[in-house]
Design goal:
By secondary structure, this protein is mainly alpha-helical. The protein folds into 3 domains: 85 residues, Arc Repressor Mutant, subunit A; 88 residues, His-Me finger endonuclease fold; 33 residues. The protein has 12 helices and 5 strands. A 3-stranded antiparallel beta sheet has the order 1-3-2. Strands 4-5 form a two-stranded antiparallel ribbon. The longest helix is centred in the middle third of the chain and has 15 residues. It starts with 8 loop residues before the first helix and ends with a helix.
């Protein structure tokens, strides 16, 4: 039986406002079957990271709860169904597509058509609007460009995985911790998901690819991994200039 028959009209309308492909697939499946399993998400829809798909739905204001069922192989697997519909909220960013387009355009105007994490130039279509501070920590922010960042799909997935394994995302919920994190402000941070690490993402494009290949050959000849070799080069250069 179609589970949408048991849901309030205003909740159904909220669900219909969601047009992004991944959360829409989850919502439509639950409306039709009452729940969706991680097995469904992987095998039927090709989503290899089910928690991210569920998170997308929650970020659009649609409450989900997790429970467990038996998968086709007899193992216990997670499944998702609608939670307390009284907690449903209208996500201003996802629901007002015109306004979200304005924010995206403004971010591109300010910073260029590139990923904030990898600093790679990509097409506008490949860029996704992402909350600097996860919704799970700070809720829905003011609709100002400063509250958001543009990420390519790869960076968005990497950020999602890191955030979902961060203690602040799971229990502490302190916005100030997020604001000093690499995933919110990669240009000015003191930690990465509460870990004392630092990172640099380097890319070689165009003519610089030849330099990378030479670097790779030299690292291989010294039986070293490229990141390790680059660190040594930087350290030597810094010592030389002291």
């Amino acid at each position: 039986m179609d589970s949408s028959q048991q849901l309030p009209d205003d909740f159904i309308q909220l669900c219909q406002l969601v047009t992004a492909k991944r959360p829409k697939a989850v919502i439509d499946h639950i409306l039709q079957y009452g729940f969706i399993t991680t097995e469904d998400l992987k095998e039927r829809y090709g989503y290899n990271h089910p928690p991210r798909a569920a998170r997308d739905v929650r970020e659009h204001g649609v409450p989900l709860e997790t429970f467990y069922v038996t998968g086709s192989d007899g193992r216990r697997i997670a499944a998702y169904r609608f939670g307390d519909v009284r907690k449903a909220r209208f996500s201003r960013l996802s629901g007002r597509t015109g306004l979200s387009k304005q924010i995206k355009d403004e971010l591109i105007k300010r910073y260029g058509c590139k990923c904030f994490i990898y600093l790679e130039e990509v097409t506008e279509r490949e860029l996704q609007i992402d909350h600097r501070v996860p919704f799970e920590v700070d809720g829905e922010p003011e609709l100002e460009p400063e509250s958001f960042m543009l990420l390519c799909g790869s960076a968005n997935r990497a950020k999602s995985w890191s955030c979902e394994h961060c203690e602040n995302w799971n229990s502490i919920k302190d916005k100030s911790i997020c604001l000093s994190c690499y995933w919110a402000y990669p240009e000015n941070y003191t930690h990465i998901a509460m870990r004392q690490v630092r990172r640099i993402d380097l890319m070689w494009t165009g003519r610089d690819v030849e330099i990378y290949e030479r670097l790779k050959q030299l690292a291989n000849s010294l039986e070293k991994e490229i990141p390790e070799f680059i660190k040594e080069i930087i350290e030597r250069e810094m010592q030389r200039n002291e």
